[in-house]
Write a structure and sequence with these properties.
alpha/beta; 20-stranded parallel sheet; seven-stranded mixed sheet; 10 helices; elongated; binds uridine-diphosphate-N-acetylglucosamine; binds calcium ion
Amino acid sequence: MIPENTGPAAVIVLAAGAGTRMKSRTPKILHEIGGRSMVGHALLAARSISPRQLAIVVRHERDLVARHVAELDPAALIVDQDDIPGTGRAVEVALQALDAEQDLTGTVVVTYGDVPLLSGQLLAELVATHEREANAVTVLTADLDDATGYGRILRGEDGTVTGIREHKDASDAERLIREVNSGIYAFDAAVLRDALTHVTTDNSQGEKYLTDVLGLARKAGGRVAAVVTADRWQVEGANDRVQLSALGAELNRRIVEAWMRAGVTVVDPATTWVDSSVTLDEDVRILPNTQLHGATTVARDAVVGPDTTLTDVTIGEGAKVTRTHGSGAVIGAGAAVGPFTYLRPGTVLGDTGKIGAFYETKNVTIGRGSKLSHLGYAGDAEIGEDTNIGCGNITANYDGEKKHRTVIGSGVRTGSNTVFVAPVTVGDGAYSGAGAVIRKDVPAGALAVTVAAQRNAEGWVAANRPGTRSAELAQAATTDSSSTPASTEEGK
Ligand code: UD1
Ligand code: CA
C-alpha cells in the first residue's frame, strides 16, 4: 500500500473509543469480519482514495491497536489522543500531528475504525462532491428508520445543512429527524483547523464534538453540504457483537454476490463464507457449507464443498475438494481431495493426485498422479509420481523427540497398513506387503515384507469363551462342515 499523491491531503481514522459493549478483552476494532479486522477494512477504504497522509487516532488499548495498525499499514501515522474526550478532540490531535511538518491544505477526510463496510468508492464520491462544490464541510448522511443514538442532520427551510445535533442534546422535535450523521466527512483543512479551536465541551456529554464544526464553518461563511447514501450498511458501526455479526453477514453477502457476478457458481450463498482476501476464477463451483479464508485461491472449473473449510489453500484448475478441512496446502490441477480429509500446512498435492477419506497430511509433497486413497497419515514426506499408497499407510515421522523424513519414489505400490519408520527411503517402483513395517531403506524395484508366521490356536474360543455366541457359532460351523471337532488343548 504505497500512497500516491493523487487523493485528498489526509484521511484521519478515529479509533480511540473504548468499545465497552463488545465485552471483550480484544479491542473492538480488532474484531474481524470477512477475515479482516474492522480497522483493517477502514484502513483499506482510506488507502483506496490515495491520501497524501493517513493518520489514525488511538487511546483505548493503545499498544495492541498500534501494533496491529503498524502491521497492516506501516505508513500510517499513529496519533495518541489525550485526556480531553470527544471526536472533535480526536481530529484536533491528528491535525496537529499531521501539521507538525507542514500545514495541511486541501481536503481532510474523517472516518471511523469501526465502520467496516464503508467502501473506497463512496469515500471517493464524498471527496469528489466536496471538491466540486467547493464546500467547507461535506458530511456523509443516511436516512434511517430508527435514528436513535445518532447525531441528527439539521437543515434550513431551503434544505441546506445547518448543523448536527447529538441525540442526547436533541429536542423531541429534533429526535423525529431520520437523517443521521454517519461521522464520515470531508473538510477543508483550514476551516477544520480554525473551527476546532472554537469547539467547547459545553454539551450533555462534556466532550469536544466534531459535529460542532459544521455550525461554526457556516457561521464563518463556508458552504456545508451532505452526501446522502441509500446504502445504510456503509455507514453502520459495530458497537456490540450482534451488530458485528450482522455486518459480517452483510459483508459476506456482498462478497459472495460479487463472485457470482464474476462467474462463480455458489449453490447456497447463505452457507457459503468467503473472506475478502480470497480469489476465485470463472466457472468455479462452490457447494453448500463451504468457508474459504485467508489467501485461498481457486482456479477455473474446480469444485469445492460441500462442508469444506479452507484457509490459505491454493486449488488448481478442475480439482475437486469435498468435505475437507485444510490450511496452508496446495492442490494440483485435476486432483481430488476428500471426503473427510485433513490437510495441514505444507501439504502439496501434484496434478491429478488424490488424498482420500480419513487422511491427515502435513508437510508432504506428493507427485503428479500419486494417490493416498484411504485412511492414513503422511507427514514430513516426499512421494514421487504415479505412486499408489495402500489403505491405512502411516509415516511414523516422530520418535518422541525429533521429526524424520520419509522419501518414497515414483511408481511405488505399498500394501495395506504399511508403516514407514522414518528416516527411511523407498526406491522407485518398489512394493511393500500388507502390514509391512519399513525400518530399512527399500531398493528400487524390491518387494519389502515383514512377515511373522501366522499361528491358529484351534478351538481357542470354545476353551476360553465357553457359552458365548461366538463359541456357539464356532461349534455349529465345525459340526456342519463335518470336520473333526477341534482339540482345545492348543489354546491353553
Ligand atoms: C458520533 C457522532 C454522531 C454520529 C455517530 C455515528 C460526534 C459528537 N457524534 O457519535 O453525530 O451520528 O458518531 O456513529 O462526533 N472516538 C475517538 N475519540 C473520542 C471519541 C470517539 O477517537 O474521544 C472515535 C471512536 O473510536 C469511534 C468514533 O470516534 O470510532 C465515534 O465515536 P462514538 O463515541 O461512537 O461517537 P457517537 O457518540 O456514537
Ligand atoms: Ca458510535
